[in-house]
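INTERNAL AUDIT FORM
Audit reference: QA-55
Scope: verify that the stored structure record matches its stored sequence.
Auditor: D.O.
Record contents follow.
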Amino acid sequence: LKPPLGRAHAALGRAAAMLLAVRPADTDLSGLRRLARPSGHARRPQAEGPLQHPLGAAASCSSAAPVRREASAWGWGCAHAAIGVVAARAAGRRRGARARVVAAGAGAAPPPATPEELRALRLKDLKRALATAGLDVSGCFDKESLFELLKPEGVTERVLASLQAVAEASKPKVYSVPLVVEENTFIALDLKLGPNSAVARFMVDTSTPFTTILEDWAKRLGAIGVSGVNPPQVSLGSAYLGDLDCGEFRAVPVVMAVPPGCCGVLSLDFLSRFDWEFDVQNCQVQVAKVPTDTAVPVPFDITSLRKVPFELKVAKNMSMGGMEIKLLKAPVKMGRQGAAAAEMLLGSLGSFSLDCEAYLFFASVSACSKDAAEALALGGEDYPGKGKQMITPDGKSQTFQDYGLSLAVGDGPDGPVAVNAEVCVDHPGLQKLAFNTGVPTAILGLDVLGRSRMVFSPREMCIWMQPDLG
């Protein structure tokens, strides 16, 4: 598929920045489209070849590799066209642990464990509990009549045991698998694909509308074309993440630059099939399939974490393969660091604090728009920034500013998550992002999201993080 190029677009995270290098098809993908069709079946006309991302030249600055080697020196959306710095570190920086299955953590409300707790249930819940244990409750319309059913010896114990068994069976099985971490530049997961369980490494990113795989990898793994979909997809059969059966794995074949050892990008279409717990510091991921009963809470311990609801926001003037690009958005209050500023930040708006729309990228560093910096009066003598020099793929040098800012992330029921971060200002890619006119924009990247254990549930449209990330 080769969609028409539109106006210049911003790079969205590392995955979208890599797609700057996506080129039109120069090979025939017909070999990937071996899906049998009934005789006489009319095939929908489709363009052959890998996808081209409609990112314009203005995003080339997002392709920059930094001069400094610290993780904070990476501009958000740093290009993989200039991936040499990462490649040089790749061999020694990949970390992980052996996969293992673990028991589901806290999250779901426990069933009643005593006769007193059972009798304290609401009428509707008590009636359902007794029916689950096989008791006939058809003629019972109040709790007293239900209590009569519990009087025979052993019935209460049978009901409690039945409820416990149902609760255990309803818990999604949680798997622990290694997380590949390349400093603060990106994270990746290893999948086993196809009948031969070939190991394929995919970068995790939320800024592209679909999962991708390199065209040559798709051919090597014997991918089969999927008919009637746009953009064109291939199926690689069953996928396994550790011992977790992920079901059929589909991806859009592309030609693009990726980090060393990676063969594509896992985006929200794949991530949304599961609940996740990312522990970037310890290079571990816990993952569970989304349960059939979506009312079942996430199967991880979130008692010490703070809930941050997010929504999916369409990025204006951006599309990929004719599909809108939807990004994870949460409210953020941003302000200068320091005791006085922090007090204003977490209270009412003051002269040095600001409401922003923040977008959560798993393959980026944190940034804010120029209008946000101007509203906070950054860059003056009283609050100077730190210069950051970056080299674009064409060899040009550009300088950006980093500022230490305090952030209050989210508007969950228990309040925001507090964090201090070095925030990049006026990156060209961020200048091109268009969401709500006049609303300051920020990016929360892996440098913030990876500081502590984070639970991520696309089905619940929430993440959970430590209340204070420092």
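Auditor finding: record pair retrieved intact. Confidence is low (pLDDT under 50) at residues 1-13, 15-50, 52-108.
Action required: none
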